[in-house]
Amino acid sequence: MDALVPALAALLGLLVGSFLNVVIHRVPRAESLLRPGSHCPACSAPVRPWQNVPVLSWLALRGRCAACREPISVRYPLVELATALLFAAVAARLGATPELPAYLYLAAVAVALAMIDLDVQRLPNAIVLPSYAVGALLLLPAALAGPGWTAALRGLAAMAALYAFYFALAWFYPGGMGFGDVKLAGLLGLYLGWLGWSAVVIGTFAAFLLGGIAGVTLLATGRAGRKTALPFGPAMLAGALLALFAAGPIAAWYGALLLPSA
């Protein structure tokens, strides 16, 4: 049973990852997610069901459109694999708990928003804002279980705190922080606050640490200049996921440094 939940989550992640490829491509362009159906961007030939099996179809077609033989980006199967692995990791971390659907949704949103922010340096309201309601509804069953009400109230408090913190950063330093990041911060606060205040602190600190490392790396390799605008959403999402998996061990390690045992 312990291995079954991550395995099922991985299969679900493959399917969700296939849909996320559509989201990543169409949402920034304000296109419908339903119509037209999946098609080749080069020749507009419709993608048949057997050609739309996550990862396997790309391998079977050798990375080319079945109709016009134009190359299909390797990013499509990579998004599907990344979503599957992330779903499996989240399921292994949480198990078959009432919170699991909420954090699987967060994982899916993280993949979509990170890719879109890297592509167009924008975190679309069409994804971020509805995710507040979806996240709250998915966490509701866990809150109704009893002790979850404490976590729910902490999540709401952390949501307000992170939103206010990022809002202040965007207000006083508009060149370094966008209001898309502010809206995302509140959503991440809801999820991190549910886990605990240590997760909030670690997830926030990790975002700035990872963002700084990415910025320095790009500067050192000449891929960005001092005035280059860099998306911060991926770092925020990576920091939140790091806190999900490792907030407890990191907090314990840091506590041991501050208060070493005799």
UniProtKB/TrEMBL annotation:
Transmembrane segments: 102-120, 126-144, 156-174, 194-220, 232-256
Protein name per Swiss-Prot or TrEMBL: Prepilin peptidase
Organism of this sequence: Planomonospora parontospora
A single cellular component GO annotation: plasma membrane
Cited PANTHER family: PREPILIN LEADER PEPTIDASE_N-METHYLTRANSFERASE-RELATED (PTHR30487:SF0), TYPE 4 PREPILIN-LIKE PROTEINS LEADER PEPTIDE-PROCESSING ENZYME (PTHR30487)
Pfam families tied to this protein: A24_N_bact, Peptidase_A24
Subcellular location: Cell membrane
InterPro entries: Prepilin_IV_endopep_pep, Prepilin_pept_A24_N, Prepilin_peptidase/N-MTase
A single GO molecular function term of this UniProt record: aspartic-type endopeptidase activity
Listed GO biological process terms: signal peptide processing
Keywords: Cell membrane, Membrane, Transmembrane, Transmembrane helix
Domain spans labelled Prepilin type IV endopeptidase peptidase: 105-215
The organism's taxonomic lineage, starting at the top: Bacteria, Bacillati, Actinomycetota, Actinomycetes, Streptosporangiales
Start and end residues of each Prepilin peptidase A24 N-terminal domain: 11-93
Family label: Belongs to the peptidase A24 family.
Designated gene of the protein: pilD
Membrane in keyword set: yes
Top-level taxon: Bacteria
Membrane topology: Multi-pass membrane protein
